[in-house]
Write a structure and sequence with these properties.
The protein is of the alpha+beta class. The protein has helices at about 165-180, 205-210, 220-230, 270-275, 285-300, 330-335, 410-425, and strands at about 5-10, 20-25, 35, 45, 55, 65, 70-75, 80-90, 95, 100-105, 120-125, 130-135, 140, 145-150, 155-160, 190, 200, 235-240, 245-250, 255, 260-265, 310, 365-370, 375-380. The protein has three domains: about 5-165 and about 335-425, Sandwich (Thaumatin); about 170-215, no CATH class; about 220-320, Metal Transport, Frataxin, Chain A. The strands form five sheets. Strands 2, 3, 4, 6, 8, 11, 12 and 23 form an eight-stranded antiparallel sheet that branches. A five-stranded mixed sheet has the order 7-1-24-14-15. A five-stranded mixed sheet has the order 21-20-19-18-22.
Length: about 425
Protein backbone atom coordinates (compact mmCIF):
# COMPACT_ATOMS: atom_id res chain seq x y z
CA UNK A 1 0.00 0.00 0.00
CA UNK A 2 1.32 3.42 -0.95
CA UNK A 3 1.59 6.44 1.34
CA UNK A 4 -1.23 9.01 1.48
CA UNK A 5 0.99 11.49 -0.37
CA UNK A 6 4.00 11.31 -2.66
CA UNK A 7 6.72 13.72 -3.73
CA UNK A 8 7.32 15.20 -7.17
CA UNK A 9 10.30 17.30 -8.26
CA UNK A 10 9.79 19.44 -11.36
CA UNK A 11 12.95 20.63 -13.10
CA UNK A 12 12.78 23.66 -15.36
CA UNK A 13 15.08 23.07 -18.31
CA UNK A 14 13.08 25.23 -20.73
CA UNK A 15 15.40 28.23 -20.68
CA UNK A 16 12.48 30.40 -19.55
CA UNK A 17 11.83 32.00 -16.16
CA UNK A 18 8.16 32.14 -17.13
CA UNK A 19 7.49 28.45 -16.70
CA UNK A 20 4.52 27.08 -14.74
CA UNK A 21 3.06 23.75 -13.65
CA UNK A 22 -0.54 22.80 -12.86
CA UNK A 23 -1.79 19.59 -11.29
CA UNK A 24 -5.34 18.38 -11.84
CA UNK A 25 -7.26 15.18 -11.23
CA UNK A 26 -9.92 13.47 -9.15
CA UNK A 27 -9.57 13.12 -5.37
CA UNK A 28 -9.63 9.37 -4.74
CA UNK A 29 -10.26 9.82 -1.02
CA UNK A 30 -13.00 12.42 -1.37
CA UNK A 31 -15.68 10.98 -3.68
CA UNK A 32 -13.57 11.61 -6.81
CA UNK A 33 -14.24 15.35 -6.75
CA UNK A 34 -12.04 17.50 -9.02
CA UNK A 35 -8.96 18.94 -7.41
CA UNK A 36 -6.00 21.20 -8.13
CA UNK A 37 -2.74 21.73 -6.29
CA UNK A 38 -2.30 25.39 -5.43
CA UNK A 39 0.65 27.65 -6.20
CA UNK A 40 2.57 26.57 -3.08
CA UNK A 41 2.85 23.07 -4.56
CA UNK A 42 1.14 21.28 -1.67
CA UNK A 43 -2.22 22.80 -0.72
CA UNK A 44 -5.20 21.02 -2.25
CA UNK A 45 -7.97 23.11 -3.85
CA UNK A 46 -11.32 21.40 -4.35
CA UNK A 47 -13.48 23.85 -6.30
CA UNK A 48 -17.16 24.15 -5.50
CA UNK A 49 -19.79 24.04 -8.23
CA UNK A 50 -20.19 27.47 -9.83
CA UNK A 51 -23.54 29.04 -10.62
CA UNK A 52 -22.64 29.67 -14.25
CA UNK A 53 -20.57 27.98 -16.96
CA UNK A 54 -17.04 29.16 -17.75
CA UNK A 55 -16.50 30.49 -14.22
CA UNK A 56 -13.06 31.43 -12.93
CA UNK A 57 -11.23 29.43 -10.28
CA UNK A 58 -11.16 30.85 -6.77
CA UNK A 59 -7.55 29.88 -6.07
CA UNK A 60 -4.17 30.38 -7.71
CA UNK A 61 -3.18 27.03 -9.16
CA UNK A 62 -0.15 28.18 -11.20
CA UNK A 63 2.95 26.66 -9.64
CA UNK A 64 5.96 28.84 -10.63
CA UNK A 65 8.96 26.77 -11.69
CA UNK A 66 11.59 29.44 -11.14
CA UNK A 67 14.66 30.26 -13.14
CA UNK A 68 16.13 27.91 -15.75
CA UNK A 69 17.75 24.97 -14.02
CA UNK A 70 15.61 25.34 -10.87
CA UNK A 71 13.81 22.38 -9.31
CA UNK A 72 10.44 22.83 -7.61
CA UNK A 73 9.13 20.45 -4.94
CA UNK A 74 5.49 19.37 -5.10
CA UNK A 75 3.44 17.03 -2.91
CA UNK A 76 0.27 15.32 -4.14
CA UNK A 77 -2.41 13.19 -2.47
CA UNK A 78 -3.86 10.08 -4.09
CA UNK A 79 -5.33 11.16 -7.44
CA UNK A 80 -7.06 9.41 -10.34
CA UNK A 81 -6.96 10.68 -13.90
CA UNK A 82 -4.19 13.09 -12.99
CA UNK A 83 -2.30 15.42 -15.26
CA UNK A 84 0.73 17.61 -14.67
CA UNK A 85 0.39 20.50 -17.10
CA UNK A 86 3.20 22.83 -18.12
CA UNK A 87 3.34 26.16 -19.89
CA UNK A 88 5.99 28.69 -20.80
CA UNK A 89 5.66 32.35 -21.67
CA UNK A 90 2.15 32.67 -20.23
CA UNK A 91 -0.02 31.08 -17.57
CA UNK A 92 -2.79 28.67 -18.52
CA UNK A 93 -6.47 29.36 -17.92
CA UNK A 94 -8.64 26.68 -16.31
CA UNK A 95 -12.36 27.34 -15.93
CA UNK A 96 -15.28 25.66 -14.17
CA UNK A 97 -18.69 24.54 -15.31
CA UNK A 98 -21.49 23.56 -12.91
CA UNK A 99 -20.87 20.18 -11.30
CA UNK A 100 -18.13 21.19 -10.84
CA UNK A 101 -16.51 20.18 -14.10
CA UNK A 102 -13.08 21.47 -15.05
CA UNK A 103 -12.72 23.15 -18.45
CA UNK A 104 -9.21 22.20 -19.55
CA UNK A 105 -6.96 23.77 -22.18
CA UNK A 106 -7.73 22.65 -25.74
CA UNK A 107 -5.56 22.18 -28.82
CA UNK A 108 -8.57 21.86 -31.12
CA UNK A 109 -10.65 24.91 -30.08
CA UNK A 110 -9.09 27.98 -31.67
CA UNK A 111 -11.20 30.19 -29.38
CA UNK A 112 -9.68 28.64 -26.26
CA UNK A 113 -7.61 31.24 -24.32
CA UNK A 114 -4.74 28.74 -24.16
CA UNK A 115 -4.66 27.90 -27.86
CA UNK A 116 -1.63 30.05 -28.75
CA UNK A 117 0.29 29.31 -25.55
CA UNK A 118 3.16 26.83 -25.41
CA UNK A 119 1.92 24.00 -23.20
CA UNK A 120 1.79 20.26 -22.67
CA UNK A 121 1.22 17.61 -20.02
CA UNK A 122 2.06 14.18 -18.69
CA UNK A 123 -0.51 11.83 -17.16
CA UNK A 124 -0.55 9.95 -13.88
CA UNK A 125 -2.60 7.97 -11.39
CA UNK A 126 -1.56 7.68 -7.76
CA UNK A 127 -3.68 5.21 -5.82
CA UNK A 128 -3.24 2.75 -2.98
CA UNK A 129 -1.50 0.26 -5.27
CA UNK A 130 1.02 2.35 -7.20
CA UNK A 131 2.11 5.56 -8.88
CA UNK A 132 1.73 5.20 -12.65
CA UNK A 133 2.96 7.96 -14.97
CA UNK A 134 3.29 8.33 -18.74
CA UNK A 135 4.12 10.92 -21.35
CA UNK A 136 1.49 11.19 -24.05
CA UNK A 137 1.30 12.13 -27.72
CA UNK A 138 -2.25 10.80 -28.11
CA UNK A 139 -3.65 14.31 -28.68
CA UNK A 140 -0.60 16.23 -29.88
CA UNK A 141 3.15 16.70 -29.75
CA UNK A 142 3.86 19.97 -27.99
CA UNK A 143 6.81 22.36 -27.88
CA UNK A 144 7.76 21.48 -24.28
CA UNK A 145 9.63 18.15 -24.07
CA UNK A 146 8.78 16.15 -20.94
CA UNK A 147 11.00 13.48 -19.36
CA UNK A 148 10.22 11.22 -16.40
CA UNK A 149 12.34 9.58 -13.72
CA UNK A 150 10.77 7.52 -10.92
CA UNK A 151 12.85 6.38 -7.95
CA UNK A 152 11.37 3.93 -5.47
CA UNK A 153 12.15 3.50 -1.77
CA UNK A 154 14.79 0.86 -2.59
CA UNK A 155 16.63 3.32 -4.83
CA UNK A 156 15.69 1.65 -8.10
CA UNK A 157 15.04 4.00 -11.01
CA UNK A 158 12.87 3.95 -14.14
CA UNK A 159 12.97 6.67 -16.75
CA UNK A 160 11.41 7.92 -19.97
CA UNK A 161 13.53 10.40 -21.88
CA UNK A 162 10.91 12.01 -24.10
CA UNK A 163 11.67 14.39 -26.95
CA UNK A 164 14.87 16.39 -27.21
CA UNK A 165 14.77 20.16 -27.17
CA UNK A 166 13.23 21.36 -30.42
CA UNK A 167 11.79 17.90 -31.09
CA UNK A 168 8.42 19.28 -32.16
CA UNK A 169 10.14 20.98 -35.11
CA UNK A 170 11.59 17.68 -36.26
CA UNK A 171 8.20 15.99 -35.91
CA UNK A 172 6.60 18.78 -37.96
CA UNK A 173 9.26 18.49 -40.67
CA UNK A 174 8.74 14.74 -40.93
CA UNK A 175 4.96 15.12 -41.18
CA UNK A 176 5.42 17.62 -43.99
CA UNK A 177 7.87 15.26 -45.72
CA UNK A 178 5.40 12.38 -45.40
CA UNK A 179 2.66 14.48 -46.95
CA UNK A 180 4.95 15.32 -49.85
CA UNK A 181 5.34 11.58 -50.37
CA UNK A 182 1.69 10.50 -50.20
CA UNK A 183 -0.46 13.66 -50.20
CA UNK A 184 -2.66 12.26 -47.44
CA UNK A 185 -2.85 15.48 -45.41
CA UNK A 186 -0.16 14.99 -42.75
CA UNK A 187 0.97 18.59 -43.20
CA UNK A 188 -2.41 19.80 -41.91
CA UNK A 189 -1.48 18.42 -38.50
CA UNK A 190 1.25 21.05 -38.09
CA UNK A 191 0.04 24.10 -36.15
CA UNK A 192 1.97 27.37 -36.24
CA UNK A 193 1.88 29.99 -33.50
CA UNK A 194 1.39 33.75 -34.00
CA UNK A 195 5.18 34.08 -34.35
CA UNK A 196 5.22 31.64 -37.27
CA UNK A 197 7.06 28.96 -35.31
CA UNK A 198 5.74 25.43 -34.91
CA UNK A 199 3.47 25.45 -31.88
CA UNK A 200 2.42 21.80 -31.92
CA UNK A 201 1.72 18.80 -34.14
CA UNK A 202 -1.77 17.37 -33.76
CA UNK A 203 -2.58 13.68 -33.81
CA UNK A 204 -4.80 12.59 -36.72
CA UNK A 205 -7.67 12.20 -34.28
CA UNK A 206 -7.26 15.80 -33.06
CA UNK A 207 -6.74 17.04 -36.61
CA UNK A 208 -10.07 15.55 -37.63
CA UNK A 209 -11.86 17.65 -35.02
CA UNK A 210 -11.17 20.72 -37.15
CA UNK A 211 -11.58 18.93 -40.48
CA UNK A 212 -13.75 15.81 -40.44
CA UNK A 213 -12.78 15.09 -44.06
CA UNK A 214 -9.10 14.77 -43.17
CA UNK A 215 -7.84 11.24 -43.95
CA UNK A 216 -11.27 10.25 -45.24
CA UNK A 217 -10.90 6.82 -46.88
CA UNK A 218 -7.20 6.65 -45.95
CA UNK A 219 -7.33 3.06 -44.63
CA UNK A 220 -10.11 1.74 -46.88
CA UNK A 221 -7.96 -0.35 -49.23
CA UNK A 222 -5.99 -1.83 -46.36
CA UNK A 223 -9.13 -2.71 -44.38
CA UNK A 224 -10.66 -4.31 -47.47
CA UNK A 225 -7.58 -6.53 -47.85
CA UNK A 226 -7.75 -7.47 -44.17
CA UNK A 227 -11.42 -8.40 -44.42
CA UNK A 228 -10.75 -10.41 -47.58
CA UNK A 229 -7.94 -12.38 -45.93
CA UNK A 230 -9.86 -13.24 -42.80
CA UNK A 231 -12.87 -14.44 -44.75
CA UNK A 232 -10.88 -17.63 -45.34
CA UNK A 233 -8.24 -17.47 -42.59
CA UNK A 234 -8.62 -17.55 -38.82
CA UNK A 235 -7.69 -14.41 -36.88
CA UNK A 236 -6.63 -15.32 -33.34
CA UNK A 237 -6.42 -12.61 -30.72
CA UNK A 238 -4.91 -13.13 -27.29
CA UNK A 239 -7.09 -10.99 -25.03
CA UNK A 240 -4.32 -11.18 -22.40
CA UNK A 241 -7.06 -11.72 -19.83
CA UNK A 242 -9.32 -14.49 -18.57
CA UNK A 243 -10.83 -15.06 -22.02
CA UNK A 244 -7.46 -16.19 -23.42
CA UNK A 245 -7.22 -16.68 -27.18
CA UNK A 246 -10.35 -15.82 -29.16
CA UNK A 247 -10.63 -16.80 -32.82
CA UNK A 248 -12.80 -15.19 -35.47
CA UNK A 249 -13.41 -14.87 -39.19
CA UNK A 250 -15.17 -12.46 -41.50
CA UNK A 251 -18.73 -13.58 -42.16
CA UNK A 252 -20.60 -11.48 -44.66
CA UNK A 253 -19.11 -8.06 -44.01
CA UNK A 254 -18.51 -8.50 -40.29
CA UNK A 255 -15.42 -9.73 -38.47
CA UNK A 256 -17.17 -12.24 -36.24
CA UNK A 257 -16.06 -13.80 -32.97
CA UNK A 258 -18.65 -16.46 -32.17
CA UNK A 259 -20.60 -15.95 -28.94
CA UNK A 260 -18.73 -12.68 -28.33
CA UNK A 261 -19.59 -10.10 -30.99
CA UNK A 262 -18.80 -8.60 -34.38
CA UNK A 263 -16.79 -5.74 -35.85
CA UNK A 264 -17.83 -3.85 -38.97
CA UNK A 265 -15.20 -2.36 -41.22
CA UNK A 266 -13.68 0.65 -39.44
CA UNK A 267 -13.10 4.00 -41.10
CA UNK A 268 -9.87 5.96 -40.76
CA UNK A 269 -11.51 8.03 -38.03
CA UNK A 270 -12.44 4.87 -36.14
CA UNK A 271 -8.89 3.54 -36.41
CA UNK A 272 -7.24 6.76 -35.27
CA UNK A 273 -9.66 7.22 -32.35
CA UNK A 274 -9.83 3.53 -31.35
CA UNK A 275 -13.21 4.32 -29.77
CA UNK A 276 -15.78 5.03 -32.49
CA UNK A 277 -17.67 2.95 -35.03
CA UNK A 278 -16.98 -0.75 -34.43
CA UNK A 279 -14.68 0.15 -31.51
CA UNK A 280 -17.48 1.65 -29.43
CA UNK A 281 -20.91 0.79 -28.06
CA UNK A 282 -20.10 -2.86 -27.38
CA UNK A 283 -22.94 -5.16 -26.27
CA UNK A 284 -23.36 -5.10 -22.51
CA UNK A 285 -23.08 -8.86 -22.05
CA UNK A 286 -19.63 -9.08 -23.66
CA UNK A 287 -18.47 -5.48 -23.33
CA UNK A 288 -15.20 -6.17 -21.55
CA UNK A 289 -14.19 -9.03 -23.83
CA UNK A 290 -15.09 -7.01 -26.92
CA UNK A 291 -13.06 -4.15 -25.51
CA UNK A 292 -10.02 -6.40 -25.19
CA UNK A 293 -10.48 -7.60 -28.77
CA UNK A 294 -11.11 -4.11 -30.09
CA UNK A 295 -8.01 -2.68 -28.43
CA UNK A 296 -5.78 -5.23 -30.11
CA UNK A 297 -7.46 -4.92 -33.51
CA UNK A 298 -7.23 -1.12 -33.37
CA UNK A 299 -3.57 -1.25 -32.38
CA UNK A 300 -2.69 -3.60 -35.24
CA UNK A 301 -4.55 -1.38 -37.73
CA UNK A 302 -2.72 1.76 -36.58
CA UNK A 303 0.56 -0.13 -36.91
CA UNK A 304 -0.52 -1.77 -40.20
CA UNK A 305 0.36 -5.28 -39.04
CA UNK A 306 -3.07 -6.93 -39.04
CA UNK A 307 -2.87 -8.07 -42.66
CA UNK A 308 0.45 -9.84 -42.15
CA UNK A 309 -0.04 -11.26 -38.67
CA UNK A 310 -2.98 -13.56 -37.92
CA UNK A 311 -1.97 -13.93 -34.26
CA UNK A 312 -2.48 -10.63 -32.46
CA UNK A 313 -0.68 -9.30 -30.58
CA UNK A 314 1.59 -12.25 -29.78
CA UNK A 315 3.05 -12.47 -33.28
CA UNK A 316 3.99 -8.80 -33.32
CA UNK A 317 7.54 -7.48 -33.72
CA UNK A 318 8.25 -3.80 -33.07
CA UNK A 319 10.55 -3.49 -36.12
CA UNK A 320 7.53 -4.40 -38.28
CA UNK A 321 5.36 -1.56 -36.99
CA UNK A 322 4.41 1.14 -39.52
CA UNK A 323 6.29 -0.56 -42.38
CA UNK A 324 3.25 -1.05 -44.64
CA UNK A 325 1.36 1.83 -46.23
CA UNK A 326 -1.12 3.11 -45.39
CA UNK A 327 -0.15 3.43 -41.74
CA UNK A 328 -0.38 5.89 -38.87
CA UNK A 329 2.69 7.93 -39.72
CA UNK A 330 1.99 10.34 -36.88
CA UNK A 331 2.38 7.41 -34.46
CA UNK A 332 5.54 6.31 -36.26
CA UNK A 333 7.31 9.65 -36.09
CA UNK A 334 7.45 10.83 -32.45
CA UNK A 335 7.94 7.58 -30.52
CA UNK A 336 9.41 5.29 -33.15
CA UNK A 337 12.07 7.44 -34.80
CA UNK A 338 15.19 7.57 -32.63
CA UNK A 339 16.36 10.90 -34.01
CA UNK A 340 13.15 12.44 -32.65
CA UNK A 341 12.24 10.67 -29.40
CA UNK A 342 15.35 9.96 -27.36
CA UNK A 343 14.37 6.43 -26.31
CA UNK A 344 11.61 5.64 -28.83
CA UNK A 345 8.83 5.62 -26.21
CA UNK A 346 5.58 7.54 -25.72
CA UNK A 347 1.83 6.97 -26.23
CA UNK A 348 0.96 7.99 -29.79
CA UNK A 349 -2.56 6.52 -30.02
CA UNK A 350 -4.97 5.25 -27.34
CA UNK A 351 -3.89 1.59 -27.41
CA UNK A 352 -0.18 2.07 -27.95
CA UNK A 353 0.42 -0.02 -24.82
CA UNK A 354 -0.76 -3.21 -26.56
CA UNK A 355 2.22 -5.56 -26.79
CA UNK A 356 2.88 -9.30 -27.16
CA UNK A 357 2.53 -11.35 -24.00
CA UNK A 358 5.81 -11.80 -22.18
CA UNK A 359 7.56 -9.09 -24.17
CA UNK A 360 10.52 -7.93 -22.07
CA UNK A 361 11.59 -5.17 -24.43
CA UNK A 362 11.15 -1.48 -23.60
CA UNK A 363 7.51 -0.51 -23.81
CA UNK A 364 6.33 1.80 -26.57
CA UNK A 365 4.02 3.72 -24.27
CA UNK A 366 6.56 5.67 -22.23
CA UNK A 367 5.47 4.63 -18.74
CA UNK A 368 7.03 4.49 -15.28
CA UNK A 369 5.26 2.89 -12.32
CA UNK A 370 6.02 1.55 -8.87
CA UNK A 371 4.15 0.40 -5.77
CA UNK A 372 6.70 2.06 -3.48
CA UNK A 373 7.44 5.44 -5.07
CA UNK A 374 9.81 7.80 -3.31
CA UNK A 375 10.35 10.59 -5.84
CA UNK A 376 9.02 11.34 -9.31
CA UNK A 377 11.22 13.81 -11.17
CA UNK A 378 9.68 15.50 -14.20
CA UNK A 379 12.08 17.48 -16.39
CA UNK A 380 10.62 19.88 -18.91
CA UNK A 381 12.50 21.39 -21.83
CA UNK A 382 14.64 18.41 -22.75
CA UNK A 383 17.71 16.96 -21.01
CA UNK A 384 20.99 18.84 -21.10
CA UNK A 385 22.38 16.26 -23.52
CA UNK A 386 19.83 17.20 -26.19
CA UNK A 387 21.68 20.40 -27.18
CA UNK A 388 20.02 22.94 -24.94
CA UNK A 389 16.57 23.99 -23.80
CA UNK A 390 13.42 23.92 -25.85
CA UNK A 391 12.73 26.91 -28.05
CA UNK A 392 9.60 28.45 -29.51
CA UNK A 393 6.19 29.15 -28.04
CA UNK A 394 7.45 31.79 -25.63
CA UNK A 395 10.63 30.09 -24.38
CA UNK A 396 13.95 31.91 -24.58
CA UNK A 397 17.25 30.26 -25.45
CA UNK A 398 19.55 29.90 -22.47
CA UNK A 399 22.09 27.17 -21.91
CA UNK A 400 21.47 24.72 -19.08
CA UNK A 401 24.69 23.18 -17.77
CA UNK A 402 23.04 20.46 -15.75
CA UNK A 403 24.48 16.99 -16.34
CA UNK A 404 22.21 13.98 -16.52
CA UNK A 405 23.71 10.51 -16.41
CA UNK A 406 22.25 7.59 -18.28
CA UNK A 407 20.85 4.65 -16.39
CA UNK A 408 23.20 1.65 -16.18
CA UNK A 409 22.39 -1.51 -18.06
CA UNK A 410 20.99 -3.40 -15.07
CA UNK A 411 18.44 -0.64 -14.55
CA UNK A 412 17.36 -0.88 -18.16
CA UNK A 413 16.81 -4.61 -17.75
CA UNK A 414 14.84 -3.99 -14.57
CA UNK A 415 12.67 -1.43 -16.32
CA UNK A 416 11.99 -3.89 -19.12
CA UNK A 417 10.91 -6.59 -16.70
CA UNK A 418 8.61 -4.20 -14.87
CA UNK A 419 7.17 -3.02 -18.16
CA UNK A 420 6.50 -6.59 -19.23
CA UNK A 421 4.67 -7.29 -15.98
CA UNK A 422 2.52 -4.20 -16.43
CA UNK A 423 1.68 -5.11 -19.98
CA UNK A 424 0.68 -8.62 -19.04
CA UNK A 425 -1.77 -7.33 -16.44
CA UNK A 426 -2.97 -4.08 -17.95
CA UNK A 427 -6.14 -4.18 -20.01
CA UNK A 428 -7.59 -1.09 -21.67
Amino acid sequence: MTNPTTAIAIKNNTGSSQAYAYITGLDLNNNNVPLFIQADGKTVYRPSSPSAPQSALEADVSIPLGAPGATTAVTIPQIAGGRIWFSTGSKLTFLLNPGPAVVEPSVTNTADPNYNISWGFCEFTYNKEQLFVNISYVDFVGPIPIALELRNTAGKVQSVQGLPAGGVNTVADKLIQQNAADGAGWDKLVIKGPDGKTLRALSPNSGRVADANLFQGYFDDYVNKVWSKYASTDLTINTQASWGDVTGRVQGDLLTFPNVGTFAKPSAGDIFSCSTGPFGSYPEATRDEMGALGARIAASLNRSTLLDNAKQPDGEKIPNYYKTNPTNHYARIPPQTHEVNLDGRGYAFPYDDVVPSGDAGPDQAGTVFDSNPELLTVTIGGPASSNGPATGGGSKKEKDDDNKTAAPGWLSKLKSLLSALKKALHIK
